[in-house]
Amino acid sequence: MLASDPEILGALEEEAKGRQGARTDLGHGGNNSTKSRDKAADAFGTNPRYVSDAKKVRAKKPELADRVISGELTLPEAKKKVEAAEIAEALSRIPEDDREPLAGLVGAAVTSHTERLEMANRLAKMRQEDRTRVKVLAKGSEYEQRLAGTIAADRPAPLTLDVDVMVGVVARMEAARSRLRAIEGAGQWVRWLDDSITEIRRMLQHAS
């Protein structure tokens, strides 16, 4: 049960700090928080990560900790609210005109909360011209959206196919389109080829 863990966690941590000060065989203080967290976990019959989450909720949003204690929220629900508030605060520092598409970019990132928060903070600190570039890419093709995400996450650009191979593919598609157009005019397959060729050419422009 988590029922009284804000008080118990604080007491256990203070107790662990006191023991650390009285002993020299426990190493440096950097391990103190981990040791007290593990002791708290043993007391609750739960795991250390659960205790860490409880402490984070208590520190960031005490009112949510109260709702967890009362049974109104579960700890995972409270943690999600804390994380959402952290990202919202970072995004609030982005100019309003840029905020919506960049918030969508951060929200769509398939990664951890820590990395999404870093992405939001990085976007907030970007020069305006760089942030505008990311915003434009985020509204573009699938490849452009991936590129926007990698820029925001400060990672290498997504891999592209070999340019010479893609040029050859486009040439074959154009030949097929010409033959199809002679047979069926502007039918659905011709339109599909038109769209595909346009998209590949756009990718080639980014690769060049």
Describe, in plain words, how this protein is organized in 3D:
With 208 residues, this protein is mainly α. The protein has 3 domains: 78 residues, no CATH class; 61 residues, no CATH class; 45 residues, no CATH class. Helices cover 77% and strands 0% of the residues. It contains 11 helices and no strands. Helix 1 crosses helix 2, helix 3 packs across helix 5 and helix 4 runs antiparallel to helix 5. The N terminus is likely disordered.
Please tag this protein with its features:
single chain, 208 residues, mainly alpha, 3 domains, 11 helices, elongated, disordered N terminus
Question: How do the helices and strands line up, and which of them pair or pack?
Answer:
Elements: H1 5-22, H2 32-44, H3 48-60, H4 62-70, H5 75-91, H6 96-108, H7 113-125, H8 128-138, H9 142-152, H10 163-184, H11 188-207
Helix pairs in contact: 1-2, 2-3, 3-4, 3-5, 4-5, 5-7, 6-7, 6-8, 8-9, 10-11
